[in-house]
Amino acid sequence: MSETILSSGEQVNDLIHQKLRRYNRQFMRDFRDYNFHIERDGEIIAGIVAASTMDTLEVEFLFVDERYRHEGFGSRLLGHVETLARKNGLRRILLNTYSFQAPDFYLKHDYTIQTVIEPCFGEYNQYYFIKNL
């Protein structure tokens, strides 16, 4: 066996993600990206990366630069994808977060905790949320 295991960078990670999505399309349908960001003075200060499959939207990342937190950018992005998801007939949103990130933020936006792994990483918990639309 001459194959070597190599460390992957972002380009390879993206390629692997694309290959997995292509494989999954055999079993799942209606893939659609819900990726948006907010800029201020040409700088990206917040963004959301999400995708739908069949009747479910899964949020992979929601980020707001620390300098701009508590200004409503996260709520605007989350509300935007929720509105689009409803408009497109989706029935639920899934996401996960960690105790040092934003579990209270999602509770405030009517997400329900499905499970918590405590602890997950060292002293930090991981929360899995759902919101029915």
Describe this structure in words.
- With 133 residues, the protein is α+β, with helices and mostly antiparallel strands.
- It has a single domain, classed as Aminopeptidase (3-Layer(aba) Sandwich).
- Helix content is 27%, strand content 40%.
- It is built from three helices and seven strands.
- The protein has helices at residues 10-24, 73-87, 103-108; strands at residues 32-33, 36-40, 43-53, 56-64, 92-98, 112-121, 124-132.
Q: How is this fold's topology laid out?
A:
Blueprint: H1 10-24, E1 32-33, E2 36-40, E3 43-53, E4 56-64, H2 73-87, E5 92-98, H3 103-108, E6 112-121, E7 124-132
From the spread of the alpha carbons, the general shape counts as: globular
H-E order: HEEEEHEHEE
The level-1 CATH class: Alpha Beta
Write down the Rg.
Answer: 17 Å
In this structure, how is the largest beta sheet organized? Answer: 7 strands, mixed
Query: Structural class, please?
Result: alpha+beta
Binned strand content = 35-45%
Taking all residues together, what is the mean pLDDT? 94
Compose a concise summary of this entry.
With 133 residues, this protein is α+β, with helices and mostly antiparallel strands.
